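Working notes for the structural subgroup meeting. M.R. asked for a predicted model of this chain before we commit to crystallization trials. I am recording the input and output together here so anyone reviewing the notebook later can reproduce the run.

Input as submitted:
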Amino acid sequence: MENLFRLADHESFFSRRCIWVNGPAIIGAGPSGLATAACLREQGVPFVVLERAECIASLWQKRTYDRLKLHIPKQFCQLPKLPFPEDFPEYPTKKQFIDYLESYAKHFEINPQFNECVQSARYDETSGLWRVKTVSTSAASTRTEVEYICRWLVVATGENAECVMPDIEGLAEFGGDVTHVGEYKSGEKFKGKKVLVVGCGNSGMEVSLDLCNHNASPSLVCRSSVHVLPREVLGKSTFELAVLMMKWLPLWLVDKLLLILAWLVLGNIEKYGLKRPAVGPMEYKNTMGKTPVLDIGALEKVRSRDIKVVPGIKRFLPGQVELVNGEKLDIDSVVLATGYRSNVPSWLQVRKCEFFSKNGFPKAPFPNGWKGKSGLYAVGFARRGLSGASSDAMRIAQDIGQVWKMETKQKKRTTACHRRCISQF
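Returned structure, recorded in token form:
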């Protein structure tokens, strides 16, 4: 596969315009795409992975802050068929996780086509095939368009493909530094500054903690309700406890027990401006898709007022922010911890799509949101983290593998086979 594409680099635009993929095309080389590719490799199914960046796991490598660690134990974050190294800590660092993903790709001989940005993907009902158009995003080369033709399309771009930039009155006139959390690396450059952190999820909380550790003065905007849970209870992961309880107890009881544990460990957090939702943390995640905050030290800074929790924003003024309660704060910088969203609607062209909703997520809830019609699959959209993505990846590979083996009647076929189409579409 590598030799074919290396040769194609020296050929003309028209000669490599259309490429037949003898197997599924996987869009995205993040953990979800890698997991799917590895499971397909085990099934003996050839594939191609298309990635818009120049590296695997670009979200982790390019859009995460330096102090980031996995918030849940490593056994719930490892991808199929290859566990984390035994010497890794229970909560691996960002660097350790990236190293793991790199070794994972190497182990399963996953070689994505980098700098291939998908412009569109549509199902051709006449041929019964998917047509995926890409544009080369490599700065070193001229703009090159390629169309990949495949029978199966696996969407692995995930929940966090694009930054969410809120439209807040006056933000353009604020005049200070405005950074999305995807561009935030550390609080070093904010030392001694008053920083407004917009968003009180896991990223907003951890960025606020990092700012405190770098002698900045953060104010954390908590516009809506939020569940905060201790990361551990008596040395046991709260996430692991929840998983165990969910196997035996109804959802409402698990939520009640989690809230009791949170109150015993963290106390009453509402007096600090962190109002809890009316429903429990697990139900809230299932219905709203919002993950509970696992506290790793930020709450202590909230109690000491080193992190000031403030209500929603009314508008920005030059050098200031006006809150919904009328209070005005002098601030130097803004960090937008407003999250990410799926970008699937911008490129997947399916008439009356019964699989994906307008927000770019599968319509069917977990565990049924992995398979659509006409060879369309989705992985990493279940709002179940890396463990949910791994489950989807295994289901997808098994589903495609059954068809592949039945039709080819081959026990093993470990290398992808691509050929340029004679006809031009």
